[in-house]
């Protein structure tokens, strides 16, 4: 298989009718590492919206069992990508997501915003750091895939195009990003989780590198001291260099799904989709589908 052969296959598909199939090719074959990092960043951004960050902090799940919440979120979303909306495991994943969200009074605007991050952040990340930019077919298919997920979740007034998702995200962040003590605590716990995946002496370096990949509005909302321009430039050039290296490698022949990521730590012996996440009991606080770690 030639390096761009799969892209040519994608361009022969219908980006609306074949949206989930295209998204599976993009996320499991073309850009598995980039999609994982961009979705981590997408969910991490939601902490900077006080109504979301505060709720996640109140559940205490993201500060007490951060690894499990990361694993559950990645595996639930991945089950839908791998198996499809109509398959048993895909339907079960959606049911688990919906049951967890229904335990909380979550505003429609917040739900819609989170959905927007799933659509917009992968394109922005891949265009900046991937081994090639995302094609128009892939962009349309990603938007359509998450439009379908949004409909299954009962989200209202879902944007219809990528451009509408992007406008919705930018406007929402401009209006809603802000300081909240709970959001900051969830952010700190997430940064600590990411650092825990590597040898302890590297923790300060990893934290600085992560902050160097965040944009100014996000840093301001969490009141983090921005890394210097030289540090930001070095880190971002390093990630771009990885993309250029991947371009020189043979294309992936086997899919790589999120369940295969080394960051998934809690299910070495396997898992059932129906058991993932929390099972909220009325009157008892537990975590809704929870964000993962930043890149």
Polypeptide structure, described:
- The protein has 295 residues and is mainly α.
- It has one domain.
- Helices cover 63% and strands 0% of the residues.
- The chain contains 14 helices and no strands.
- It starts with a helix and ends in a 47-residue tail after the last helix.
- Residues 282-295 have low confidence and may be disordered.
* Element order: H for helix, E for strand: HHHHHHHHHHHHHH
Q: Give me the count of strands.
A: 0
N-end to C-end Cα span: 30 Å
Unreliable parts: 282-295
Mean pLDDT: 91
Radius of gyration: 18 Å
How would you characterize the largest beta sheet? Answer: none
Oligomer: single chain
Helical region count?
Answer: 14
Strand content: under 5%
Shape: globular
| Sheet/helix structural class | mainly alpha
Percent helix, as a range, is 55-70%
Total separate domains? 1
